Amino acid sequence: MATTTVIGEVPPYVSDDEMDASEMEHNGNKKRVKKRQRNWVEKMVFINTEEAEEAMIKEDQRSYHHTNTTAAEKRNFIDVIKSKLVPSRIPTEVKTIIQESFELKLKPKAIIEVLHECGITTPSIHQLNNFLRTIKSTKLDPTSISLGEIEQWCLKSSQSIPESDDAPFFASYQIIYDDDGDINENKFRFFITIKRLLQTASISKKIHADATYKLVWQGFPVLIIGATDLDRHFHLFGMAICSNETTQDFRFIFRALQKGMKKLNLEEIDPDFLIAADADAIRNAFQDVFGEKKMVMCWAHMRRNVVKKIESMVKKSEQEDLVNDVESLQLAQDERIFIKASNLFVKKWSKKEPNFIQYFQNEWLTTHNAWYEGVGHFAPSTNNALEAINNVIKKRKIHFVDV
């Protein structure tokens, strides 16, 4: 008796006129109804069952078979059920963008918007959430670190100074539970450094400080402090993580730097300048710790803020000329020249753009006026070197280990 294996495909739908095998009569008894026969389609013919099953595996399809014996021959029928399409995986380059967005604390919807703006086909929300859960479990552990765990970590790592010049340690830390004297919440602050960095700090006179969300730990920004040399190369002193960005937090950082110097029996740092953005918290803390010092306003931050205001407040035809005049003001080599040039600048533009001049006088000629070159000779006028080191740390994926 010949044996032939025939493969037939089950339709992926059920016809509306197909009846169930049983229905209820009016008296409640079941009545057997003949089911409509499907129309089977012969797709492929195989020599034996093994060959058919192997083909199903290659096609990634599920199947089951039954045998139909007639007087002429014996047939093994393999009914093929097409398996659901497996969704494509998220490409590596897309995962990189998602990971960077996650580190910036963006929500899933915001991440999808970022991908749209980059012209990238977005994964499904289910895929995205699964990948974000994977990131959290590998980077942040299953749950965020607790305040008690931070305290134990800091306590253990600050008990002694490492022998190696390049081994990290805590110069200082603070763990505050339910601080009623400030904001009613738990807080933490810690400053990490190494001997080699503090040795550089001991001979530095120009301090750069900033908080950046380009680098985050447990959702909190990394606070960077360091100095630049005459070639304007940045030299890191250490990194701090604080639960807030207030004057108290930056005061802690500057004092932690001094404590680190004392632990190594180095002379306390006595800087001549602070180069920072227009964050009053940084500037006030610096003054509290180091006294009356020159504070250089980062020209790059100042220019960006001013250009935004010009674009929103000034007529299009006047914008380029106004930006050029602000840039010329920045080149003033001493306070006397800056004051005279500022007066001429105000006189020129007060009638043309009175609203902008009012803003400029209040913000950049009164409150924050240390953004011209003459404020600090041989001192950088921007925080660009510090921001560049942030990118280096981020790209090299440097993180706190074995502290």
Structural summary, described in words:
The protein has 403 residues and is an alpha+beta fold. The protein contains 13 helices and 13 strands. Strand 2 and strand 3 form a beta hairpin. Helix 2 (92-103) crosses helix 4 (125-139), helix 7 (247-263) packs across helix 8 (280-290) and helix 10 (316-330) packs antiparallel against helix 11.
Descriptive keywords:
single chain, 403 residues, alpha+beta, Nucleotidyltransferase, domain 5, seven-stranded mixed sheet, four-stranded mixed sheet, disordered C terminus
Write the layout of secondary structure elements.
Elements: E1 2-9, E2 22-24, E3 30-32, E4 42-46, H1 49-58, E5 62-69, E6 73-81, H2 92-103, H3 108-117, H4 125-139, H5 147-157, E7 169-176, E8 187-193, H6 195-201, E9 206-217, E10 220-228, E11 234-242, H7 247-263, E12 273-276, H8 280-290, E13 294-297, H9 299-313, H10 316-330, H11 335-349, H12 354-367, H13 384-395
Parallel strand pairs: 1-6, 9-12, 12-13
Antiparallel strand pairs: 1-4, 2-3, 5-6, 7-8, 8-11, 9-10, 10-11
Helix pairs in contact: 2-3, 2-4, 7-8, 9-10, 9-12, 10-11
**What structural class do you assign from the helix and strand content?**
alpha+beta
The domain tally reads: 4
CATH topology of the largest domain: Nucleotidyltransferase, domain 5
CATH class (first level) name of the largest domain: Alpha Beta
Strand order of the largest sheet: 7-8-11-10-9-12-13
Give the low-pLDDT segments.
Answer: 1-23, 399-403
Main pleated-sheet profile? 7 strands, mixed
CATH architecture of the largest domain: 2-Layer Sandwich
End-to-end C-alpha gap: 78 Å
CA-based gyration radius: 35 Å
Can you write the helix and strand succession as a string?
EEEEHEEHHHHEEHEEEHEHEHHHHH
Q: Globular, elongated, flat, extended or rod-shaped: what is the shape?
A: flat
Mean pLDDT: 77
